[in-house]
Amino acid sequence: MKRIVLFENIHPSATEVFEAAGYTDVVTYKSALTGSALHEALKGAHAVGIRSRTQFDADAIAAATDLEAIGCFCIGTNQVDLLKAANSGLPVFNAPFSNTRSVAELVLGEAILLLRRIPEKNARVHQGHWDKTAEGAFEIRGKTLGIIGYGNIGSQVGTLAEALGMRVLFHDVEAKLPLSNARACPSLKRLLEQSDVVTLHVPGGATTENIMNSTTLAQMKPGAVLINAARGSVVDIDALHEHLQSGHLAGAALDVFPEEPKGTNEPLKSPLIGMNNVILTPHIGGSTQESQENIGREVAEKLVLYLRSGASKGAVNFPEVSYMPASGAERILHLHKNVPGTMAALSNVFAEYGLNIVGQQLQTRDQLGYAITDVDGIVSEELLAKLRAFPGTLRCERLRSGL
Ligand code: NAI
């Protein structure tokens, strides 16, 4: 029976998936472990689940001698030595889509609150005022939403916004299929000039740094609002501060910041602190009970599929081979250096032992090639040893049927 070891209080939905698939040897830890305690806990583990606090470095990988795959029950994977894992034949899976809906709902909620001027009104009531006025308050129905970055989250925001009667424009550097009635804007400027609400859903990094700066903020409609639940680096905060103070923009909601506090008791440092037309949240766009449950299920399902079939679709560091139903007596998983002639040579070894290949898939990624091969007979230990000794082989396993 394969053993699954889960650290960092992973949502019970993960254990449910493993148990339903027959993997009942699931060991769970409430927190992250380090050093020798981690190495000890990894002994006998065939699949491991971590979140962001476990440092899965080369030493941890070396200590986990039975390991077949790693699951990051979160979005980020930089806590794992991805290259070392890949070269050790360990695909790393994560949950890139599990919190999409949570972010999209927050954005829509903030759009409504900002157009109704609720942050200011809320603050005024707390301060003892009763400004019962419709001045500056608008419905979002019929207003234009401009989405910058029409990927997983951006397109989901657009679909929800249309259900509320918004007109949806988007701008993306890639050609994207518009969902429902959304329309692509050829330039960022055209989008900014027309939108009552602008929301950012681009990745971080050099190409998106300060996409919203003094020039692009000036292109926004007077009275419009800006929402950023993407990455802190995409908005020039000083420029935004100026546009809010001047009254050009009516409000903003920010969930991410150029520099975020490291711990619970560290305050956020930002010129926007104290502005009552700005909603500030501590990077919780994707943090809901539902997203945690989805993450547990999504990553556990990817691990189960890999353990059962060798399918590596969705791995972040590994050639991605899709699920292939078993078509032979035995299945061999072969990870090798991506050099010409490897597949022909492997086929020759099978032929030499009188085995016919009845199903095969190969995918390559950077320096790696990964092949799943089904053969019509039993693979002997001698043949397996030959495949393992083949030049460039990084890992070769027989996929045992059952658990
Ligand atoms: P995605 O990769 O599905 O979509 C990003 C889109 O932005 C792609 O369509 C891409 O072509 C486009 N893009 C890239 N550069 C662009 C540019 N310069 N101008 C216009 N479009 C550009 O990503 P996903 O999953 O939708 O995530 C979007 C952002 O949300 C990411 O930055 C992610 O880190 C952040 N995020 C924030 C969370 C939170 O808690 N606040 C939770 C989850 C994600």
Quick structural gist:
This protein is an alpha/beta fold and 403 residues long. Helices cover 32% and strands 19% of the residues. The radius of gyration is 26 Å and the shape is elongated.
The biggest sheet amounts to: 7 strands, parallel
Shape: elongated
Question: From N to C, what is the helix and strand string?
Answer: EHEHEHEHEHHEHEEHEHEHEEHEHEEHE
**DSSP strand content:** 15-25%
How much is the average pLDDT?
Answer: 95
Continuous helix count: 13
Regarding quaternary structure, how should these chains be classified? single chain
Point out poorly predicted stretches. Answer: none
User: Which small-molecule ligands are present, each listed once?
Assistant: 1,4-dihydronicotinamide adenine dinucleotide
**Helix content bin:** 25-40%
Strand order of the largest sheet: 8-7-6-9-10-11-12
- How many strands appear in the DSSP assignment? 16
Estimated radius of gyration = 26 Å
C-alpha end-to-end distance: 5 Å
Can you describe this structure?
It is a single chain. Strand 10 (225-228), helix 10 (237-245) and strand 11 form a beta-alpha-beta unit. The chain starts with a strand and ends with a strand. The model has no long low-confidence stretch (mean pLDDT 95). Helices cover 32% and strands 19% of the residues. The chain has 13 helices and 16 strands. It has helices at residues 12-20, 35-42, 58-63, 82-87, 100-115, 118-126, 152-163, 188-194, 214-219, 237-245, 289-309, 342-352, 381-389; strands at 4-6, 26-28, 47-50, 69-72, 92-93, 144-148, 167-171, 183-184, 197-200, 225-228, 251-254, 278-280, 330-337, 357-365, 368-375, 393-399. The radius of gyration is 26 Å and the shape is elongated. The chain is α/β, with parallel strands linked by helices and 403 residues long. The protein has a 7-stranded parallel beta sheet, sandwiched between helices. A 5-stranded parallel beta sheet has the order 2-1-3-4-5. It has a 4-stranded antiparallel beta sheet with strand order 14-15-13-16, sandwiched between helices. It binds 1,4-dihydronicotinamide adenine dinucleotide. 1,4-dihydronicotinamide adenine dinucleotide binds at residues 75, 99, 103, 148-154, 171-174, 201-204, 207-208, 211, 229-231, 255-256, 283, 285-286. Residues 331-401 form the ACT domain. Keywords: NAD, Oxidoreductase.
